[in-house]
Design brief:
Helix 5 (127-137) packs parallel to helix 6. This protein has helices at 11-19, 30-37, 63-71, 103-113, 127-137, 167-180, 182-188, 231-245, 250-260, 266-279, 284-296, 300-313, 318-325; strands at 46-50, 76-81, 93-97, 116-121, 141-150, 201-207, 210-215. The radius of gyration is 27 Å and the shape is elongated. It contains 13 helices and seven strands. Bound molecules: S-adenosylmethionine.
Length: 328
């Protein structure tokens, strides 16, 4: 919801107005930033922003760095600009002079001051620079950290070497979206070579003129080649088993049996289904689970028995009637 009046503004936007950054007014980023960063506010956040502001002026700029220092009371704020800056923004703000496409320069900053919780690219907005900075800096984000690219409209502007298809900036966004789905693409295209960062892209959010890449584990198995050895899958199985062991609903039991089938634990699954059918004899979920487990185990007589019972309860269910025609 848009704020109705200035009294409804979020705290970051209020600070942005005071510190004079274009992140609010010319752009509308601060409410988005606040929605993403509020949980980190009291933490000793390390934030790196490319683009201090003020361009070639030594004494102008620094609005967003001052804003971040005020917002993150315990934060360490680092700024990068192509031009020399002499700004007194307090001892928690440090500025480095250099270009965002100078990999050695960026890596020096990372070595000396990384890792970072938040990295913002508000520098030249030249697409190849955006990509160069991402490649050099994304590895230095902590797990759970955010990498944000501002003013992506420039990717379409000829004045910034942009093109109608969004140039290298949007190509990066597309590659990241593909990287996010690297497990699924590998299922259908074994020749696909995922970029190195693919396993650590947790999410991609795209707003008007703003891209947000979240770093985090992206190694979950595809559901087409489910792997119970994966820690997240193992945790899911463990939590489902625990719930089934305490006070499960028939639907929860039926769902749980889906995990026992690929492990070949057919007898255990059928025992569970039978036990719960005694308590809930009219549960369609349990009858269909019984059908699935039996059919997967090749016990077709038994599968048909469950199906007959299910059809007696729901004779008009077209999907169930379709199962009768399926080759058992
Ligand atoms: C839009 S301003 C930054 C505004 C500031 N972040 C704020 O929100 O208040 C962009 C800045 O990026 C700097 N810049 C331009 N090209 C750069 C490059 N290649 N590397 C680093 N900084 C660059 C400019 O000098 C300028 O000060």
């Amino acid at each position: 919801m848009l704020p109705g009046n200035s009294a409804d503004l979020d705290p970051l936007t209020v600070i942005a107005i005071r510190q004079g950054t274009d992140k609010w007014g010319a752009h509308f980023y601060t409410p988005i930033y606040h929605s993403l960063l509020a949980p980190l506010r009291s933490k000793p956040v390390r934030l790196l922003e490319i683009g201090v502001g003020g361009y070639a002026s030594k004494y102008l700029g620094g609005g967003s760095l001052a804003m971040w220092a005020e917002y993150f009371e315990h934060g360490q704020i680092f700024g990068i600009d192509l031009h020399e800056k002499q700004l007194d923004l307090g001892e928690r703000v440090t500025i480095f002079q250099g270009s965002q496409d100078d990999r050695a320069f960026l890596e020096r900053i990372v070595r000396q001051h990384g890792p970072f919780d938040v990295i913002i690219d508000d520098g030249s907005h030249i697409p190849v620079h955006v990509v160069a900075s991402f490649q050099a800096l994304f590895p230095s984000l902590v797990t759970g950290g955010l990498y944000i690219v501002e003013d992506t409209q420039t990717a379409y502007w000829a004045s910034h070497d942009g093109t109608a298809d969004g140039a290298a900036t949007m190509s990066l966004a597309r590659d990241i979206l593909k990287g996010l789905n690297h497990r699924e693409i590998a299922e259908v295209d074994p020749a696909y070579v995922a970029p190195a960062y693919a396993a650590s892209i947790r999410s991609l959010r795209a707003y008007h003129n703003l891209l947000v890449f979240e770093k985090g584990d992206n190694t979950e198995p595809s559901d087409r080649s489910y792997d119970l050895r994966h820690p997240r899958a193992a945790l899911a199985l463990q939590s489902l088993a625990a719930a089934v062991g305490t006070s499960p609903t028939p639907r929860a039991v039926a769902f749980f049996t889906n995990f026992l089938i690929p492990m070949g634990r057919f007898d255990e699954a059928l025992e569970l289904v039978e036990w719960h059918l005694r308590l809930s004899p009219t549960s369609l979920d349990l009858l269909v689970a019984g059908y699935n487990v039996s059919a997967s185990a090749g016990r077709f007589e038994r599968a048909n028995g469950y199906l007959r019972r299910a059809l007696a309860l729901a004779p008009d269910d077209r999907w169930l009637r379709g199962l009768t025609n399926a080759k058992l």
